[in-house]
Amino acid sequence: MTESHKSTIPASMKTAVIIPALNESGTVARVVSEAIEVIGHHVFVVDDASSDDTAATARAAGATVLCMPYGSGAWNSIQAGIMFCMQRGYQRFVTMDADGQHMAQSIRVISDCAEATRANVVLGSYPERGSRGRRLVWRMFNRISGLGLRDMTTGLKCYDRDAAGYLLSSETALLDYQDVGTLLVLRRRGMSIREVPVVMCMREDGCSRVFSSWLAVFEYMLKSMLWILSDKIMSGTDNDHSWETYHDV
């Protein structure tokens, strides 16, 4: 990798940006270019066996591209990216979507929060993007799980090396999404978590990989409920943790 762009992120922790991508050739170049402007050439796109030229487009834009051998889902792509970067000495891992919803400036927002608070996990939160139905589901999951988050499904997250280690453990091997299940695992492991407000854009092209159909929504809700119930069994009744609220930065 070249280092022609100077990072604006504090250098106390080496930070990698990990972008899972499936058929995102229409947006991934801009997402990569803008991320490089913020953090330099520490941008890694994990191509989940796209049928279009996502990988070539991301590589041309300056990203290091990892190619999954077959479609494995966004969560497995993120795990592959984290493992790759951990092996190369990175200390902090920012995940963001390839569809253009996340603004590159938000990398700095959540990294600054992580730097200031030393939280193990920082979530970039924008609950306004959720539909009324999605916000209703968030409230239900929050009430049952005790997570207390404003934006449960954000893909914009920052993990330190301790949290990333748990994300690569056997506990997360069967998860499908980077939200409720992973957050419950991190809570059980005592990781400190912050949620910081960010601004997000509307998706420019395609549709959500998680909520692509009503069947997919039902599958997501069923799996999430199973993870929450499993967490209650594993944690007993002692899951009334007080998570930090929005951090002012």
Notes on the structure:
It comes from Pseudodesulfovibrio senegalensis. Keywords: Transferase. By secondary structure, this protein is an alpha/beta fold. Helices cover 39% and strands 14% of the residues. The protein has a single domain (15-202), classed as Alpha-Beta Complex (Spore Coat Polysaccharide Biosynthesis Protein SpsA, Chain A). Helix 1 (28-39) links the parallel strand 1 and strand 2. The two termini are 31 Å apart.
Write the layout of secondary structure elements.
Blueprint: E1 15-21, H1 28-39, E2 43-47, H2 54-61, E3 64-67, H3 74-86, E4 92-95, H4 105-117, E5 121-125, H5 132-145, E6 157-160, H6 161-167, H7 180-188, E7 193-197, H8 214-235
Parallel strand pairs: 1-2, 1-4, 2-3, 5-7
Antiparallel strand pairs: 4-6, 5-6
Helix pairs in contact: 1-2, 5-8, 7-8
The count of DSSP E runs of length 2 or more, i.e. the number of strands, is: 7
The assigned structural class equals alpha/beta
Label the overall shape: globular
Strand order of the largest sheet: 3-2-1-4-6-5-7
Q: What is the CATH-assigned architecture?
A: Alpha-Beta Complex
Largest sheet: 7 strands, mixed
Helices and strands, in order, run as: EHEHEHEHEHEHHEH
CATH class: Alpha Beta
Find the CATH superfamily: Spore Coat Polysaccharide Biosynthesis Protein SpsA, Chain A
Kindly give the count of domains.
1
What's the pLDDT, averaged over the residues?
84
CATH topology: Spore Coat Polysaccharide Biosynthesis Protein SpsA, Chain A
Number of helices: 8
Distance between the termini: 31 Å
Percentage of residues in strands: 5-15%
Unreliable residue runs: 1-7, 237-249
